[in-house]
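Hello forum,

I keep getting stuck at the same step: I have a sequence, I want structure tokens, and every attempt I make locally crashes halfway through. Rather than fight my setup again tonight, could one of you with a working pipeline run this one for me? It's a single chain of 587 residues.
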Amino acid sequence: MAGRYGGGGQGRRHGGGEGRGPGRGGRRPEPEPIRGVRDDARLSSELLRMDGDSYGRYKSLRGDWDFGDFTLTVQHAQADPFAPPSRVRVLVHDAGIPKSAWADPVRRRATADHLGRRARRLLRGSLLRIDTGGQEVIERSSCQLTDGGIDLRIGIDLPGRGRRIDGRAAERELCTTLPDLVDDLYWEEIDVAEAEAFADSVADTVALRAQLRERGLVAFVADGAILPRRSGVSDEPMTGGAVPFESPASLRVSVDLPHRGTVTGMGVPEGITLIVGGGFHGKSTLLHALERGVYDHIPGDGRELVVTRDDAVKIRAEEGRRVERTDVSPFVRGLPTGADTSDFRTENASGSTSQAANICEAVEAGSRTLLVDEDSTATNLMIRDERMQALVHGDREPLVPFIDLVRPLHREHRVSTVLVMGGSGDYFDVADQVVMLDAYHPHDVTGRARALARERTDADFAAPRHRVVDPASVDPSTDRGRSRIKRRDMDVLVFGDHDIDVRSVEQFVDPGQITGAGLALRELVRGRHLDGARTLAEALDSLERALAEDGVTLLGGDFGGDYALPRRHEIAAVLNRLRALRVAEQR
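Reply #2:
Ran it on my machine without issues. Output:
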């Protein structure tokens, strides 16, 4: 649609082509920026003049361009056609978005996410790209609401023919496709009912999660939820053959939500919950849904009302990771070397010590809900049966198994645990409730499990000591003094000269969160949240307060790429895996 920018088509594209930019040929490494009037007509004219010039002349476009109702800022122009995409910012001054859609932080995030997804659909087939993530509704840099306006961060592969500028294609993308996109994001142009329903759905999820603690629950799974995903490479819901979730009657609870009204589902109580059953009956599918339940989901995902407390952390073994001065003494005592396990460090942790460190670090960072799947754990940290104890006496075994600590962890520190177990009935001894999955249908078998349980003696679980991080060790600078923060797929965060392996941080659900975690490490130091005096937990508290006030853009106002907001628990997990990390003291 045309008309907001003084006419459409040729009139809009060629309305003010006065003056010339830098000389043709692009022989200078850094072309001089275009001077004088910088409006949409001038941009159109300059792009057409550039056609056939050396690709480097695109750099002269950097800066602001006035389109009337919005400002286009060329933040970064790629050096050649094969470099990472160029970055532009589109600030729509007033898109007619009513205050009801942005005054509340939850609805602001949801509406921004909805508009970002609409922008992605509208840009299909163009050279412009906007980051909108997957099934989760996460605050991200690519689309923000600004009190009635819209702030978009977009990537574009500036077009070229070889190493020459394709000015006509660039003019079409920046001076026609982009203004048309802005037109189609105005509130009067969108399906308002759909946008409001999207925000209502997210608001219900947030309201439900807020009720968990007061109800003594760690999670809720709604009746009718669709938990299985389409495939191992798709997080979209299974479309055929999926069994809708139905709560056991004994665990069914009702909750009242602001928009959906009363809904029912399975409440997972505080304490120790076992999820058991045969292979391929849905145990891990349920746990995976609980892992993702710390995030809100888009309407139609099937897991909109599968929610978990926002402090829940998935725990696994992670052989080979570095551990820096973590108190693992609840799990590791009396090493043959005589090392102090309350101040434990290693460059190459075993499966058991890495899992112990992961638990203690999660508790240190504030988690009060642990999610564990036996398939990804260290067996010798989970259980020691009677025959092994008879052969290897306690004074010869430094490891205290999790089964001896899971009850005191809850009793003394209010940390609940949800475990998927398929191979060890010993955990019946410590479980508060046992849910069995049978052909994807959950059944409460707590009574039967207790009939098989035995009395056992718990170990002690002293609260892990808190660490004070040396902020100088958290530095994104390279040897050449440049800041470098980038990700490689979902596996590695590059932070300065260090590669941080994040494959085992399973609650990263979006690539942008990995980049966001790197930016959060930088902000921890730059914002003096890590100041050499605060503990790690206190520094995370301080960062959370700043993010609540300033939003996700606090992390990367000067960053040229896309990023999304991670939780404090993923930020702590990445920090703990930084091999340069130094801990100054413990408290």
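DSSP finds 15 helices and 27 strands in the chain. If your local run keeps crashing, start a new thread with the error log.
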